[in-house]
Write a structure and sequence with these properties.
The protein is an alpha/beta fold. Helices cover 19% and strands 30% of the residues. It has a six-stranded mixed sheet with strand order 16-13-17-21-20-18, sandwiched between helices. The protein has a five-stranded mixed sheet with strand order 8-5-7-6-9, with no helix packed on it. It has a five-stranded mixed beta barrel with strand order 22-25-24-26-28.
């Protein structure tokens, strides 16, 4: 029986990241930047007002009241008034030159008149129209965004390996980039097989069940960051199944086939795909989902997974084996889920000799900040099929193969099933 770690190493060794592509910045969110984005012009591109007020020369305000320091009284200086000789709105392209002892009304973001070195906030004045009375002075540079304060030409705005989020999209737009080179989402195809399956738009007959896996696994793949094609239910006829799989091998970087690791379905799938490559099906020392398959098919040796028909087992195997491959293909440095240590609030049993990945609810003690975890369902096959408990779970409790029982209050590793990121 192969260990989980050995199987994960085998799977991740097959990871092939799609070639970087250039996309519009509006489509780049959540992807990994594949280039150093070097700015060609300063940001801001001109001296501008950082607040609504009056553009002034700070030297003209020297006679205005000074702020008091360390509680000492300051003598009352003479009042300063300045004529308002114009107005500059944001977006103005008409240059204005400020003369000594004058003020110009400016909006936030407006270009600063020549010779102005500060902006006097409205609240520092009596808000006069033709003339203003200065109530409190400002120093040179106050409330001014200088040319290049944010970035200078030659600066790196977004580094390679950065996950592009809202701030990065904004910065790319600010430096005039409409496209950026990124690591694209790996394309993943999900196929379900099984004569008992019907799609959700039909009513199951005797012995039939809904196709849960193709929907659930497609959602898990999207959550991991893949670009997903849910093929749905494929015929188990060897020729037709081969055609379906071959069609996906030329359009996807990862193929997942659910319901193909037990009974007659396994033999049918093996027969259909025998000429496309080697698909090894074996027992992995984990539960649930110990029986699973993996191989590299087609001319491009596309990583292909065979997952159990049991939806809970299929989702757990996907989480442990397939999701890390997607994350590596995305270029993420840490493909695995975040692991935290938590104390159990009830006993947990596990199958000896297999690494357990048991669904659970992770909580936090408000008083101590300590993580607490409660396992949902048992570890035996009697409850491993309960999809409802997996829907309630926000973590997987990881139990070492040599451990069969964990007592209340014992620490245990927990993989937090957070949202994508």
């Amino acid at each position: 029986m192969r260990s989980v770690e050995d199987q994960q190493a085998r799977v991740t060794a097959a990871a092939v990241a799609p070639r970087p592509v250039r996309v519009a910045i509006s489509e780049a969110q959540g992807l990994l930047c594949a280039e150093e984005v070097v700015t060609e012009r300063p940001l801001p591109g001109f001296d501008q007002a950082a607040i609504d007020g009056y553009a002034v020369r700070s030297v003209d305000l020297q006679a205005a009241p000074e702020s008091r320091e360390s509680g000492e009284e300051s003598p009352e200086p003479a009042d300063v008034t300045l004529p308002v000789v114009g107005e500059v709105r944001a977006g103005s392209r008409q240059p204005i030159r400020l003369q000594p002892r004058q003020a110009v009304r400016v909006d936030t973001g407006a270009p600063l008149p020549t010779l102005a070195d500060a902006v006097l906030p409205l609240d520092n004045t009596d808000r006069g129209a033709a003339r203003i009375k200065v109530l409190e002075p400002v120093r040179s540079g106050d409330y001014v965004r200088r040319t290049g304060d944010d970035v200078q030409p030659g600066d790196v705005a977004v580094r390679a390996g950065t996950i592009i989020g809202a701030a990065q999209v904004g910065l790319l737009a600010a430096v005039g980039r409409d496209k950026v080179l990124v690591h694209p989402r790996p394309r993943l195809s999900v196929i379900s097989v099984g004569g008992e399956l019907v799609d959700v738009d039909r009513t199951p007959g005797p012995g039939q069940v809904y196709d849960v896996n193709s929907y659930a696994l497609a959602a898990a793949a999207r959550d991991a960051g893949a670009d997903v094609n849910r093929v749905g239910i494929a015929s188990t006829d060897a020729k037709r199944l081969r055609e379906v799989v071959e069609g996906q091998l030329i359009r996807a970087e990862i193929v997942v086939i659910a319901g193909a690791v037990g009974g007659g379905a396994l033999e049918e799938v093996r027969e259909a795909l025998a000429d496309l490559g080697d698909l090894g099906v074996e027992r992995i020392a984990m539960h649930p989902g110990s029986v699973q398959g993996f191989g590299r098919l087609g001319r491009d040796e596309v990583p292909t997974f065979l997952l159990p028909a049991n939806p809970v087992s299929a989702l757990v195997v996907f989480e442990v084996m397939v999701r890390p491959l997607i994350r590596i293909a995305l270029g993420r440095r840490q493909p695995m889920r975040r692991i935290v240590s938590a104390r159990t609030v009830a006993p947990i049993t596990s199958i000896p000799g297999r690494k357990g990945f048991l669904r659970g609810q992770l909580m936090r003690d408000e008083a101590t900040g300590e993580y607490l975890v409660k396992a949902l369902g048992g570890a035996t096959g009697a409850s491993s099929h309960l999809l409802a408990t997996l829907a309630e779970a926000n973590c997987l409790v990881i139990v070492d193969p040599e451990v069969s029982e964990i007592r209340t209050g014992d620490p245990v590793d927990v993989a937090f099933l957070g949202q994508r990121g």
